């Protein structure tokens, strides 16, 4: 599976659940953990869980074997490890607090939309 196809599927799934401020960071060369981070947030625990569940379902449909979702029950910061792509679904308040975009400021932001 192409990483770009996976990124598109993740962004589409998050947008379907009205995820806010979706950012794709290219962390190739900056981290050995993954190639891309997808960062987004929801405005309630229920929305955070819905976004994470939609991403998980899409990844499974694409044939990926997933590890358990980290943080799903608390729904404040859910981490979804898709191999080359790691998805961070935050509650708005946690996103502001942890500010991954600032921590990874050296990573290029990809202009991304579901139409891509």
TrEMBL record:
It is found in: Cytoplasm. Keywords: Cytoplasm, Repressor, Translation regulation. One of its GO terms (molecular function) is ribosomal large subunit binding. One of its GO terms (biological process) is negative regulation of translation. Coiled coil: none annotated. SUPFAM superfamilies: Nucleotidyltransferase (SSF81301). GO terms for cellular component: cytoplasm. Its main location: cytoplasm. Functions as a ribosomal silencing factor. Interacts with ribosomal protein uL14 (rplN), blocking formation of intersubunit bridge B8. Prevents association of the 30S and 50S ribosomal subunits and the formation of functional ribosomes, thus repressing translation. Belongs to the Iojap/RsfS family. Interacts with ribosomal protein uL14 (rplN). HAMAP family: Iojap_RsfS (MF_01477). This is Ribosomal silencing factor RsfS. It comes from Caldalkalibacillus thermarum (strain TA2.A1). The gene is rsfS.
